[in-house]
Amino acid sequence: MLCALNPKDQSLPGFTAAVWGAFLYEGLMTSTRNRQRRQDVMRHWDGSPFQLLQECCRYLERIWLHSRSFLPQLSRSDGSYEHEVIAHFGELLGYHLILNEGRLPDDDEADALIRDLVNRYRAENSRASPITAPDKSGFTQ
To answer: For each of the chain's 141 residues, which pLDDT tens digit applies?
Structure first.
């Protein structure tokens, strides 16, 4: 999947968005440590599971902005990025929602989490330098 990505794409490609959405949902709603994770998350959310997923998927574009410049350079296409970054981010969204009275993080807080997850993944899987915040054009430096 990674080889088909074009870092010049301004928006997250549809196929990638579908795959990332599945991993985000997995992280958000499932846990090997807490079999009641879905119920715990939904007990704090004031809406349907579909509405929650819609709200959470808006962060996928932010993850794309932070990672599009290096993803096509990776030789791995085994789902490790999706598991280590996307699903983990979903898990953190769930914790945030539970601990903050049903609220999701604002964009600045989400961006800080995303940068941390992406930088960790890059450090472990490539020799590229860490990302910084996107500039006004939306490109990371």
So the answer is: 444 566 566 788 888 899 999 999 999 999 888 899 999 999 999 999 999 999 999 999 999 998 888 776 665 578 889 999 999 999 999 999 999 999 999 999 999 999 999 999 988 886 555 555 555 555 444
Pairwise CA distance, residues 104 & 88, whole Å: 15
- Spell out the domain ranges in the chain: 16-125
The CA-to-CA distance between both ends of the chain, in Å, stands at: 24
Tokens 């945030």, residue located = 96
- CA–CA separation, 93 and 110 (whole Å): 9
Q: CA 7 from chain center: how many Å?
A: 17
